[in-house]
Amino acid sequence: MKQVLSAEAAMARAIDCARLGLGKTFPNPIVGAVITSASGEFISEGFHQGTDHAEVIAINAAASIPAGSIIYVSLEPCNHHGKTPPCTDAIIKSGISKVVFAVSDPNPIAAGGAKHLQGAGIEVESGICYEEASYANRAWLTKITNDRPRITWKIASTMDGKVAASDGSSKWITGELARADVALMRSQADAIVTTTATVKADDPLLTSKGLGNNPIRIVMGSTENANSSQIFGKDAETVIIKSRDPQELIAFANERGFNQLLIESGPTFGTALLSQNLIDEIVLFQAPTFLGSGTPSISDLGITNITGRLDFEIADVEIIGADLKITLIKSANHEESGR
Question: What's the whole-model pTM score?
């Protein structure tokens, strides 16, 4: 019996496919595509992972594309010739009759796909599952909007907000399952950013631990670290930026085309980024334990009045083993709060 999908289910599947490309597509967005018959019978699917685009992969995966077929795409098909030909041309040649996409392409270089498809006589519909697709592709959309990669700060703390005890010890605050989840996060990022101080204190490896791609590792700071430090191993490329200036980090990230940076450092550097309005997202892992004293997860932001607070919105809450994982997204009111 053939699987029949509603329009919403087909797009949700395309978005799930798109997520499989996280950490593999920069400087391009993640995109997923699903092809069904006119009546919704599943035909094929594909996702962009750095080479062919999702639409082309889905088309090539189809044994046949009957008349009236529909392709569901998480992002408007591109209409320019970059590393690959325009996806719109592949769709037109395939005989697909209708294109449904979730999010319009805000990149002026690649935009115009919908108009080109309509000019070829293909029916086009947009906006279905817009919120879900935008959230999945938020790193690339942030880059296009802000001309810099999306910056996520990972924090592992106790319930009372401490990232280390008074003697500096911090391994391990959270449990093994939470640490595995962090490794998965790394595989979905384009680069991990830490500091020379963190390398000296913790000697981190900062890899995906076999759960996916190993991201590029960036070490910020002018202090020299020992050549024997794990971060200088051959597991992944390591780049040293002899500065703590966030703008130098952003300039390098833009030069490389990164969509997303994951910050894994102590509170000093993370707070510096936060105070400059450069943290878009915080993923907070909290262990059900208390220290009472020790190093707080965030340093002094210079806020003296409640009206100056930096607001974030809770996007997701999960229990990972014994620990709590809270995903916080910068609030729309964040930039309106003043100090």
Answer: 0.91
